[in-house]
Amino acid sequence: MCGIAGLVVAPGQPAPDPALGLRMNSVIHHRGPDDGGLHHDDRALLGMRRLSIIDVGGGHQPIYAANGQVCIVFNGEIYNYRELREGLERDGHQFSTHSDTEVVLQGFLRDGVGIFEQLDGMFGVAIWDKRSRELILTRDRFGEKPLYYAHDERRLLFGSELKSLLQSPDCPRDLDNDALRAYLTYGYVPCPYSVFSGVRKLPPAHWLRYRDGRIDLHRYWQPSLSPKTVLDETEAAMELERLLDRAVASRLVSDVPFGAFLSGGLDSSAVVALMARHLDRPVKTFTIGFREAAYNELDDARRVANHLGTEHHELVVEPDAVELLYKLVWHFDEPFADSSAVPTFLVSQLARQHVKMVLTGDGGDEMFGGYDRYLRLLKLERLGGLRRPVATLLELAGRVAPNPHGERLRRVGERLQLPFEERYLSGVAVMRSDIAGRLRPQAGGGSHFYLPVLDDPDSMLGASDEPLDRMVAIDLQSYLPDDILVKMDRMSMAASLEGRSPFLQPDLAQFALSLPVQYRIRDGRGKHLLREVAGKWLPPRTLSKPKQGFAIPLADWFRGPLRTLAADTFASRAFRERGLLHPQEAQTLLHDHLYHDIDRGEALWQSLCLELWAQRFLDGVGGD
Fold first, then answer.
1. Pair 157, 294 in one domain
2. What is the per-residue pLDDT across 61-73, written as a single tens digit (0 to 9) for each?
3. CB 196 within 8 A of CB 174
4. More confident: 187 or 597
5. What is the structure's pLDDT at 444?
6. Residue 464 pLDDT
7. What pLDDT is stored for residue 391 in this prediction?
8. Where among 440, 466, 492 does a domain terminate?
9. CB 334 within 8 Å of CB 489
10. How far is CA 365 from CA 278, 299, 369, in A?
11. pTM higher than the cut 0.85
């Protein structure tokens, strides 16, 4: 697990300055405190910071091949690197290290960009080929590891984090209005956008070639939601257990101590149970909770830990909310407002005191239909042709019913009249379009307000027209890579901790996506088949536990430790003159929250995160 950064210039341009490479490396030191390296020639800089997990002593990067003519820097882990290495050695390739990085490099020498679709892992890769004067960038299938780039006719900048690119004085810094609109809607900036119009994110499962000042992008893999498996339920359960077991086992390859996050929910508990099957010692597990009972899963995690006999570590935290918020803003680089980043960071800090790598349950909800919003929209879809008449009735009832009940009725009525994709995305959105439109009028609203995250979900669907599959296809394009995996990458890396997600093993993920709806959702609950399989290993309470997000007491924080910061920020001259958000509307949100008993915690968190980001990355105020 590492961070990478670099620069390649077009022919005729001055050679890159090594001092820039050192700065790009230094600013992501947290991603790899164990080691660092830099390649420099007349056209290219390739830098990396290393968190040593595999081949601790011998995996220094950059790594070279072909008499020094091909150079690689690599961020991530390849779980099938041993099998790939055996094949490469049979073909005559020789290795100087035991690292997975060199396997990727030797695979590139043999297969070119065809090696990428053979990799089971999480990765951001940069390969500089002096023979062809080409830079190749690539990213893993689901987007577990990030990769930003900015290019023009003179050069291409790249890096695991945006802050590396910003070390270059000529990195574009013009704000992208579409990205800000999407941020206000979802709380994150979706790929391929970045907050700056001249910087982009390389999409998952893509590779990019930069040569002579020009780039081209190519997709090397895509998940598919059809055809569906023909296995009966018993056979499907057996295959799911086999694939789950293999996925977890493959992610236990490590030369350093490791453990697992354990929330007490189904996904993380199933991962820990399978880890226990493969280890001859107790699994180290980690959980954090808050004083407020509604935000505390310690009892659930403790129950699973006791059942599985883990070495359990837990902590009830009372964080300094202001200091923590500033840290999060620094590590995310872009405006990011998923408040569950707070407990993710805190549990990463706890785990890092004991281990260097953890397994997580990320991806289970998308693969097995676990989100409550899937269930809610499926209920609405049963209305069929009655949807529009019901929407009209709800809007009429909403006009006469007292608030907030009337407001909720009107919103449901509005959602029912949207096209399917927008109907679903309006449920993913964390800020209503009317509030976003008042806070930032230039963001627009109305038709297509929810669409900046969509590319072509139909390409994943094939022949499937199931509403559940359509929702999952959207989430695989945006919510998973742009929220869930961004959160895990940045918060674990902020603590110099590696996180691995077995549910994103390609064969397991593809099998889960091939399950028919009745194998995923049954009796009003998601993850049906996963529950059936995990029932062999877990206590009954874990299987029946309602889904609980990794949340924080935002409403209380804005009436307590964040109240002064929010009030001072929204009333400040800098906030008013910057104009990212309408000052009076932001102050109205805070006033409603404090005095009218209307919970505006999410909208306030988004607004505050945006302005603190601007202070740090536009004004250069504050530290890391």
1. no
2. 999 998 899 999 9
3. yes
4. 187
5. 53
6. 85
7. 77
8. 466
9. no
10. 24, 22, 5
11. yes
CA atoms within 13 A on the CB side of 105: 29
Q: Is residue 356 part of a domain?
A: yes
SS3 616: helix
Single out the residue in 502, 524, 544 at which a domain terminates: 544
Going by pLDDT thresholds of 50, 70 and 90, the confidence category of residue 290 is: confident
Q: Over the stretch 323-341, which tens digit does the pLDDT of each residue have? A: 999 999 999 999 999 999 9
Place of tokens 């091939």: 514
**Main-chain dihedrals φ then ψ at residue 303, nearest 5 degrees:** -60, -45
pLDDT the model gives residue 622: 43
Question: In CATH, what number is assigned to the domain containing residue 149?
Answer: 3.60.20.10
Residue with tokens 């959602």: 415
Assigned domain for 374 exists = no
Distance CA(244)–CA(503), nearest Å, equals 7
The tally of domains found in the chain comes to: 4
Cα 284 to Cα 301: distance, rounded to the nearest angstrom: 12
pLDDT digits (tens, 9 = 90+) for 50-62: 887 777 777 789 9
Nearest to 255 by CA among 30, 503, 498: 498
Query: Is 265 found in the same domain as 172?
Result: no
The tokens describing 161, both together, are: 């984090």
Higher pLDDT, 203 or 402: 203
Q: Which domain holds residue 607?
A: 554-617
Q: Are residues 42 and 151 in the same domain?
A: yes
d(CA 304, CA 282): 13
What is the secondary structure of 571-611 as a DSSP string? HSHHHHHH-SS-HHHHHHHHHHHHHS----HHHHHHHHHHH
Q: Are residues 484 and 568 in the same domain?
A: no
Same domain, 495 and 612: no
Reading the block at residue 280, the tokens are: 């001859």
Query: Does residue 282 have a cis bond before it (omega within 30 degrees)?
Result: no
- For residue 41, tell me if it sits in a domain: yes
Rg (CA), the chain: 24
Q: In terms of domains, do 582 and 527 share one?
A: no
Report the alpha-carbon distance of residue 495 to residue 486 in Å, rounded.
Answer: 14
Residues 540, 558 within the same domain:
no
First to last CA, the chain: 21
pLDDT score of 133 = 96
Q: Output the CA angle 252-258-260, nearest 5 degrees.
A: 85
Is 71 tagged catalytic? no
CA 381 to chain centre: 28
Instruction: Say if residue 603 is in the same domain as residue 566.
Output: yes
Q: How far apart are CA 435 and CA 276, in angstroms?
A: 47
Contact status, residue 128 vs residue 122, Cβ threshold 8 Å = no
Q: What is the DSSP string of 349-378?
A: HHHHTT-SEEE--TTHHHHHT--HHHHHHH
Q: What is the pLDDT of residue 454?
A: 59
Asked if 205 and 140 count as a contact pair (C-beta separation under 8 A), the reply is yes
- Tell me the two tokens of residue 375: 């269930």
Mean pLDDT over the full length of the chain: 91
Evaluate whether 224 touches 462 at the Cβ level (below 8 Å). Answer: yes
